[in-house]
TrEMBL record:
GO terms for molecular function: holo-[acyl-carrier-protein] synthase activity; magnesium ion binding. Belongs to the P-Pant transferase superfamily. Gsp/Sfp/HetI/AcpT family. Residues 94-187 form the 4'-phosphopantetheinyl transferase domain. This is 4-phosphopantetheinyl transferase. GO terms for biological process: lysine biosynthetic process via aminoadipic acid.
Length: 214
């Protein structure tokens, strides 16, 4: 495996700092299941891939089995032919990815599940901008909920996303101080939208893309 800028993931993994979050983007085929994730985790653990063991938290979030200690926390997401993986020490990252596509029911979904301010913001947008804006809010919410260790059953209306598409802001998170959370938009392309979130102090986000063929 090589990155698009000519580095090996193993060398990158060796440089994971306590003040960083590493984000990986890679091509994905749903037939692979968790294989790409396990391969990346094995590199960061420095063990053969067949020895990587995962467990699931109460709400389904995958995490390293106890035998790996507290080496790091991770999260991943995939959509269509792309996947993203976040790895960090000392914080639990949440990451979400969506491929941009038409969402004719975006407003209907927002009116039912989003907060009133988010719905109003979507209603004010021209049709041509609404699909991407809807996914920007959606991925931001998902990233926060995954970092929280909860799924959408927590209630999408219990957190509110404001700010711009490039600079999302967690304005409210029921039961938590939103100001203690970090929320960032991933640098991807026009065909994809992604978000990264964690609870804690700001960190440096370092992002790599695996070259085709991985």
């Amino acid at each position: 495996m090589m990155t698009t800028d000519g580095q090996t993931p193993r060398k990158v993994a060796e440089r994971l700092g306590d003040d960083e979050i590493h984000v990986w983007r890679l091509g994905y085929d749903h037939h692979e299941g968790r294989a790409p994730l396990l391969a990346m985790l094995a590199i960061y653990l420095g063990v053969p891939v067949h020895t990587v063991r995962l467990e699931e938290a109460a709400h389904g979030r995958p995490l390293l089995a106890p035998e790996h200690g507290e080496a790091f926390a991770f999260n991943w997401s995939h959509s269509s032919d792309q996947a993203v993986i976040a790895i960090a020490r000392g914080v639990v990252p949440g990451i979400d990815l969506e491929r941009v596509r038409p969402h004719p029911r975006a407003l209907a979904i927002a009116r039912r599940y989003f907060s009133p301010d988010e719905t109003q913001a979507l209603e004010q947008l021209p049709d041509g901008q609404r699909d991407r804006a809807f996914l920007e809010i959606w991925t931001a919410k998902e990233a926060v909920l995954k970092a929280l260790g909860r799924g959408i059953a927590f209630g999408l209306d219990r957190l509110s996303i404001s700010g711009s598409g490039d600079l999302p802001v967690l304005g409210r998170l029921d039961g938590h101080q939103a100001s203690q959370w970090q929320l960032h938009r991933l640098v991807l392309d026009e065909a994809h939208v992604g978000s990264l979130a964690w609870h804690g102090e700001p960190r440096r986000i370092r992002q790599w893309t695996l070259a085709d063929g991985r």
